[in-house]
C-alpha cells in the first residue's frame, strides 16, 4: 500500500540501514557484548529494550502457535512496570470529558460543541433537559454504543486512556505534535495535516481511513522513513526530527515492521529469513540458533522452517514476516495492511497472532482496510481523512468511512 508517486530522490530521507522487518546487507553494526548479554537475560523491558528472549513470549500464557488452539490468557505485561498501562479490558469505556445527557445542561448560549459528539439541544431556554429528552438521548447513546457502525460515526474524540497514562507518569511510545507532511509532488495536498497523537506502551491501535488518507505516510514517519515537513515526532523518547542518521539503525531495531507484501527474501528459507534479521544486528550464532526456531514455533511454522517463501501460502509467508518482526522482541510493532493480501480466515489468524504479541506488552499499530476485523476487535481506532485525524476512539469499529 501507499507507494503513490514515490521517487527515489525523495524517499527514504535517510540512508538505507538494516532494520528488523527490512533485512539489509552485511554492513550491519557489530554486536556489542553488553547487548548480547542483555539479549540472553530474562529481561525487564524498557520501552526500547528489544532484548527479551522469544522464550519469554512462549512462556506468556496461551501464546502458542495458532494450530495449538485458543485461550490466550492474560498478558505478562502487568509484571513489567514499564508496561503497566492498563489493558484495554481494564479501561472503562466511559467518556469522561463528554457531557452526558444526564448532566445538568449548560446555561443557554454556553453549549460547547465537541468534535464527533452526538450533541443534543440543551433543552428549553431555561437550560432544563426534560426527562423525555434525557431518556431519548440515553437510549440513543446505548444504541450507538452497542452498534459499532453507529458508534464510530458519532464517537467522540476520546482521551481517557492517554490521560490515565499521563497521570500515571507513563511516557508515550509515540508522540506526534502538529505533524504535517507535504510531498513535493503534491504541494497543495498535505499527506499529513496537523496530526497530534499519543500512543502508550501496550496499546493496540488500528489506523483506518480511505485509500490515500495518509496511513502509510503516518507509519513511515514513525519509522523515520519519511521526515515530516513540520511538527514533532517522538518515538520512545527519541526526537525523530533531530535524530542523527547514525542513530537511526538503533531506533529501527526497536521497531518490528510487517507489510502487506511480506517482503521476504525469495531465495532464503523461512528460517533464514528470520535469522537474517538477527544477523543484521550482529547477534551471535548461538542466539540465532536458539531464537529463530523458537519464534517460528510460536507462529505455528515449526514444520516449515526449511521452506522457501514460494512453497508457503500467503498466510504462512505473513507469519514468517511476523516472526521476523518480533524475533528481536521489539517493544513496538508497526503493521501496514498485514492482512491486505489474505483471505478472511487467514487474516483472522494473523490478527490473533498480533493480538497475542500485544498481550505480551508489545505496542502494536495496524493500518488496515479490514472492516470486519476492526469491528470485531473493538480496540483503539484512529481514523485519518485527507491527512487529518478525524477520530481517535478508545474502543471502536471501522466506521462509515475509510472503506474503499
Ligand atoms: N512519495 C510520495 N510522493 C508524493 N505523494 C505521495 C507520496 N507518498 C504518498 N503520497 C500521497 O500522500 C497521500 C497519502 O498517501 P498514503 O500512502 O500515506 O495513504 P494511505 O492511507 O496509506 O493509502 P492506501 O490505503 O491506499 O495505502 C496520497 O495523496 C498519496 O498520493
UniProtKB/TrEMBL annotation:
It comes from the Bacteria. Keywords: ATP-binding, Cell cycle, Cell division, Cell membrane, Membrane, Nucleotide-binding. It is a peripheral membrane protein. Its main location: membrane. InterPro entries: AAA+_ATPase (IPR003593), ABC_transporter-like_ATP-bd (IPR003439), ABC_transporter-like_CS (IPR017871), ABC_transpr_LolD-like (IPR015854), Cell_div_FtsE (IPR005286), P-loop_NTPase (IPR027417). Residues 10-34 have a biased composition (Low complexity). GO terms for cellular component: plasma membrane. GO terms for biological process: cell division. It is found in: Cell membrane. GO terms for molecular function: ATP binding; ATP hydrolysis activity; transmembrane transporter activity. Residues 174-404 form the ABC transporter domain. Residues 1-41 are annotated as: Disordered. PANTHER family: CELL DIVISION ATP-BINDING PROTEIN FTSE, IMPORT ATP-BINDING PROTEIN. Belongs to the ABC transporter superfamily. Part of the ABC transporter FtsEX involved in cellular division. Has ATPase activity. This is Cell division ATP-binding protein FtsE. It comes from Collinsella intestinalis. The lineage of its organism: Bacteria, Bacillati, Actinomycetota, Coriobacteriia, Coriobacteriales.
Amino acid at each position: 500500500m501507499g507507494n503513490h508517486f514515490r521517487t527515489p530522490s525523495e524517499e527514504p530521507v535517510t540512508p538505507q540501514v538494516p532494520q528488523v522487518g527490512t533485512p539489509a546487507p552485511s554492513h550491519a553494526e557489530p554486536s556489542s557484548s553488553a547487548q548480547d548479554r542483555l539479549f540472553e537475560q530474562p529481561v525487564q523491558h524498557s520501552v526500547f529494550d528489544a532484548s527479551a528472549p522469544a522464550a519469554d513470549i512462549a512462556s506468556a500464557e496461551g501464546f502458542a502457535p495458532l494450530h495449538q488452539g485458543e485461550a490466550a490468557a492474560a498478558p505478562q505485561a502487568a509484571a513489567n512496570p514499564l508496561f503497566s498501562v492498563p489493558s484495554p479490558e481494564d479501561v472503562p469505556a466511559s467518556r469522561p470529558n463528554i457531557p452526558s445527557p444526564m448532566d445538568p445542561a449548560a446555561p443557554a448560549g454556553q453549549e460547547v460543541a465537541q468534535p464527533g459528539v452526538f450533541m443534543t439541544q440543551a433543552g428549553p431556554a431555561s437550560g432544563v433537559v426534560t426527562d423525555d429528552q434525557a431518556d431519548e438521548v440515553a437510549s440513543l447513546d446505548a444504541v450507538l454504543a452497542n452498534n459499532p457502525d453507529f458508534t464510530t460515526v458519532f464517537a467522540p474524540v476520546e482521551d481517557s486512556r492517554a490521560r490515565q497514562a499521563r497521570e500515571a507518569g507513563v511516557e508515550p511510545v509515540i508522540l506526534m505534535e502538529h505533524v504535517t507532511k507535504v510531498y513535493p509532488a503534491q504541494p497543495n495536498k498535505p499527506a499529513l495535516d496537523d496530526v497530534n497523537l499519543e500512543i502508550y506502551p501496550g496499546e493496540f491501535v488500528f489506523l483506518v481511513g480511505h485509500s490515500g488518507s495518509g496511513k502509510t505516510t503516518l507509519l513511515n514517519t514513525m519509522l523515520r522513513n519519511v521526515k515530516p515537513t513540520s511538527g514533532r515526532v517522538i518515538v520512545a523518547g527519541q526526537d525523530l526530527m533531530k535524530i542523527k542518521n547514525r542513530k537511526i539503525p538503533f531506533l529501527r531495531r526497536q521497531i518490528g515492521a510487517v507489510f502487506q507484501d511480506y517482503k521476504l527474501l525469495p531465495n532464503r528459507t523461512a528460517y533464514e529469513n528470520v535469522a537474517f534479521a538477527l544477523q543484521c544486528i550482529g547477534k551471535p550464532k548461538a542466539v540465532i540458533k536458539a531464537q529463530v526456531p523458537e519464534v517460528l514455533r510460536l507462529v505455528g511454522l515449526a514444520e516449515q522452517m526449511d521452506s522457501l517463501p514460494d512453497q508457503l501460502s500467503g498466510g504462512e509467508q505473513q507469519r514468517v514476516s511476523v516472526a521476523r518482526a518480533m524475533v528481536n522482541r521489539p517493544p513496538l510493532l508497526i503493521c501496514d495492511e498485514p492482512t491486505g493480501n489474505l483471505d478472511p480466515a487467514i487474516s483472522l489468524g494473523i490478527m490473533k497472532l498480533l493480538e497475542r504479541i500485544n498481550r505480551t506488552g508489545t505496542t502494536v499499530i495496524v493500518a488496515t482496510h479490514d472492516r470486519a476485523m476492526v469491528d470485531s476487535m473493538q480496540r483503539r481506532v484512529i481514523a485519518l481523512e485527507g491527512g487529518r485525524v478525524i477520530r481517535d476512539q478508545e474502543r471502536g469499529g471501522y466506521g462509515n468511512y475509510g472503506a474503499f
